Amino acid sequence: MSSVHAENAYRNAQRQFDIAADILNLDHGYRKLLRVPHREFTVNFPVKMDDGRVEMFTGYRIQHNLTRGPAKGGIRYHPDTDIDEVRALAMLMSWKCAVVNIPYGGAKGAVVVDPAKLSLGEVERLTRRYATEISFMIGPDKDIPAPDIGTNAQIMAWIMDTYSMHIGHTSPAVVTGKPINIGGSHGRREATARGLVYVLREACEQANISIAGAKVVIQGYGNVGGTSAMLLEDMGAKIVGVADRGGGVYNPKGIDLRVLQAHYEKTGTVAGSPGGDEISNAELLELPCDILIPAAIENQITIRNADRIKARIIIEAANGPTTPDADTILFDRGVLVIPDILANAGGVTVSYFEWVQGLQEFFWTEREVNAQLERIMVNAFETVHQMAQSRRTTLRTAAYLLAVDRTADAYRVRGIYP
Ligand code: NAD
């Protein structure tokens, strides 16, 4: 992902916000306020590398909005990230938390780095220094980071430990997505895919599409794409196409996920897996199917391919995979797009459960986590769907209407300080 894409991501996020603000007839002041991040922090910091050299890295933490509660959002380690990408993702987090009605504002963090090129020790030192640099912003009632692309449960553990060392006592609720043995939540790893599947089930029911027997194509075979594939197969769907960074595989009769998983574990990619034809990422998106799940990166469905997409439903596991222009084309063609801020909100929802459990020091079973997740996701889908029907808009615009209105409403009630 280049910085051009990242710039687009921020512009796209603002464009989408403007559409909702116009329909809501949002007061000019609130519009200016919600269109930009509240706080932006950039830090250039040194890390001692294994060979004794000192390398400089750039990190960000951006809080888009704090009106509905503390800020919440992941930390991305990626070589092509930049401030515009982080701004866009922070804004999306505000809307996502508002759509599922959990008491958070939105934030995002990033470090410009390819973690695969660093040793484990270097990643730990980089993480602890970055955590120290942003420590004045984060905290259980201020801003609660989580994993994102390039970061994981171990990195969250280091951030939690660093923060705890600074304040002199253990503070599990400062991050989510932690390992279970230090306060992580059951069901967090599968939460985004599980939430996505709950929403898809509701959408399919409305659209009279049966998941059993439906043909599904998935771009991205990571945490969300891979888990979604397994959950949907369990419900009787046929996964006909899968791709990742290395390329893809297609079998119109259905891919055997056990064969695919074994190949993936051996090679680190789904490309070249037996039991299907090789296919490029571009071809994958245009395959004949009922359900298409972009679960990789931004800007995959654009004006260049939107008129050739054959899926009846697109459900966005990734953040920002469809551009606003492509949205219009898909809407005109009758393709139902379930937007990221609704579809992938299961991750932040179970992060919220992890935070609640951490603050109460009282932990739930996986069954309890999944039941609460289902309740929140089904409720969010129904509210967005009803809004789309009554306003005659796309599900994306309806989700934005709901989110922007809830956030502006919190401002209205609290008032503008002083
Ligand atoms: P991951 O790193 O586990 O997997 C990403 C997958 O995308 C990998 O299979 C990778 O090979 C593939 N990919 C990367 N670049 C690609 C490209 N150019 N073309 C095709 N495939 C490519 O990440 P994840 O956690 O599964 O997240 C996937 C998406 O879902 C991201 O956009 C992320 O922001 C979003 N998301 C994740 C969560 C979560 O809880 N993990 C929550 C909300 C949103």
Q: What does this protein look like?
A:
This protein is α/β, with parallel strands linked by helices and 418 residues long. The chain has 2 domains: 3-172, Leucine Dehydrogenase, chain A, domain 1 (Rossmann fold, 3-Layer(aba) Sandwich), CATH 3.40.50.10860; 191-338, NAD(P)-binding Rossmann-like Domain (Rossmann fold, 3-Layer(aba) Sandwich). Helix content is 46%, strand content 17%. The protein contains 14 helices and 12 strands. The chain has helices spanning 3-24, 28-34, 83-99, 120-133, 153-167, 191-206, 223-234, 257-267, 281-285, 324-332, 340-343, 346-360, 366-391, 395-414; strands at residues 39-48, 54-65, 71-78, 105-112, 143-147, 215-219, 238-244, 247-250, 277-279, 291-294, 313-315, 336-338. It has a 7-stranded mixed β-sheet. β1 and β2 form a beta hairpin. α1 packs parallel to α3. The structure holds nicotinamide-adenine-dinucleotide.
Unreliable parts: none
Strand-residue proportion: 15-25%
What value does the average pLDDT take? 96
- Going by helix content, strand content and strand pairing, the class is alpha/beta
In which order are the strands of the major sheet placed? Answer: 9-8-7-6-10-11-12
The sequence of SSEs as H and E is: HHEEEHEHEHHEHEEHEHEEHEHHHH
Distance separating the two termini: 41 Å
Tally the helices. 14
CATH class of the largest domain: Alpha Beta
CATH superfamily of the largest domain: Leucine Dehydrogenase, chain A, domain 1
The hetero compounds bound to this protein are: nicotinamide-adenine-dinucleotide
Helix content: 40-55%
Shape: globular
Instruction: Characterize the main sheet.
Output: 7 strands, mixed
CATH topology of the largest domain: Rossmann fold
Number of domains: 2
Radius of gyration: 21 Å
